[in-house]
């Protein structure tokens, strides 16, 4: 005597697996971009800057040593990036501020672009070209084209590549040669035990 038993098996399975290595950082960047889009960027930057390590520890010359092997270099690099990320952000912001101060035309272009964006998003603006009224999407397109042209004339491309290049160089050299074994122990995923 078999009974008919109906069991509802519908639903979702949310299996969260711990991501490792590069995929972990890709997921963190995606999460960061979601926060930036939601308008939480200033709070994120201030939260990150609150985790800044002491500069005396960051530039302690006695802790700079060449790595013994490539696997150790990789673990050292990731450990330093994770540990000193706020300090690296301050270096990037400092180089960016230096470029703005030494290039007044770029500063004027960025301020004009910022105020143009604020004006565009502040309320219901209507732009007319002759008898044709631009939609909001078309207004954003015109604004973006004008801002890009203004920044191009001010030399923003060269400044961007200089700042990114200088930041990547400084961060890569520091993260590669700063001995991570001298840092306080933590429970991160890159242990300083060399695999043989």
Automatic annotation (TrEMBL):
Gene Ontology cellular-component annotations: Golgi apparatus; membrane; synaptic vesicle
Highest taxon in the source lineage: Eukaryota
Record keywords, A-Z: Membrane, Transmembrane, Transmembrane helix
Primary location class: cytoplasm
Transmembrane region(s): 86-117, 140-173
Membrane-topology descriptor: Multi-pass membrane protein
Subcellular location: Cytoplasmic vesicle, Secretory vesicle, Synaptic vesicle; Membrane
InterPro entries registered for this protein in UniProt: Prenylated_rab_accept_PRA1 (IPR004895)
Family according to the record: Belongs to the PRA1 family.
The protein's name: PRA1 family protein
Organism from which the protein derives: Papilio xuthus (Asian swallowtail butterfly)
């Amino acid at each position: 005597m078999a009974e008919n038993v109906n069991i509802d098996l519908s639903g979702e399975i949310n299996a969260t697996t711990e991501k490792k290595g590069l995929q972990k950082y890709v997921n963190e960047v995606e999460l960061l971009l979601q926060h930036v889009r939601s308008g939480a960027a200033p709070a994120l930057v201030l939260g990150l800057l609150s985790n800044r390590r002491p500069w005396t520890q960051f530039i302690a010359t006695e802790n700079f040593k060449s790595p013994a092997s490539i696997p150790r270099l990789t673990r050292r690099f990731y450990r330093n990036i994770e540990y000193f990320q706020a300090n690296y952000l301050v270096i990037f912001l400092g180089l960016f501020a230096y470029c703005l101060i030494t290039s007044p035309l770029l500063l004027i272009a960025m301020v004009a672009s910022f105020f143009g964006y604020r004006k565009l998003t502040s309320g219901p603006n209507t732009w007319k070209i002759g008898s044709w009224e631009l939609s909001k999407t078309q207004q954003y397109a015109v604004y973006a084209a004008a801002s890009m042209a203004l920044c191009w004339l001010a030399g923003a491309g060269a400044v961007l590549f200089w700042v990114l290049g200088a930041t990547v160089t400084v961060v890569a050299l520091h993260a590669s040669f700063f001995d991570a074994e001298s840092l306080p122990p933590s429970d991160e995923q890159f242990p300083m035990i060399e695999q043989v």
